[in-house]
Amino acid sequence: MSDCYLPRLGGIEVQVADLVRMQREAGHEVSVATATRGEPLPGVHRIVAKMPFDLPVHPFGVGHLTRRVTSARPDVVHVHAGAVSPFAWMGVRAAFRAGVPCVVTVHSMWDPVTRAMYRLLRLAYGWQRWRLVATTVSTAAAAPIRAVAGAGGAGAGGLQRPRPLGLGGASRRPGARYP
After folding, report:
1. Which of 2, 95, 144, 147 could cross-link 102 (Cys pair, CB 3.0–4.6 Å)?
2. What backbone torsions phi and psi does residue 2 show, to the nearest 5 degrees?
């Protein structure tokens, strides 16, 4: 799940598209839920609403995503989030509601304002109890997230060390061990 996906071009969009391609090549069944408008693509579920400036968000995203996760029953939901990613975090909430394990990969640096916002959201929603596994795309990105999430990380799963997203590295196969 990601706010933004192809045809938009940016870091998250390209990394998620590459990850999807590589996972499919490795034999995994992968689908994408996004709030980005675009042409129909195989396995891409566009949950879009007419928003000002074509913002990739949906006012009823949690409900749509919860129904999607409940009907698809994936093994895991992998959410890709930037500093401000309302649709992605709706996906986290949907996975929690559906009882599906959730991994959140944060693709951005959290500045002091962003950290303050996530501290407030933590208090409001209690997401630290949602058993998330959080990853980051760099060690530098992990430190501010750890400061917000606390020593245990994002949830009982915790904040994992930064991991490559399977891009440009060794092929990831079903059942393969990850470093």
Report:
1. 95
2. -160, 140
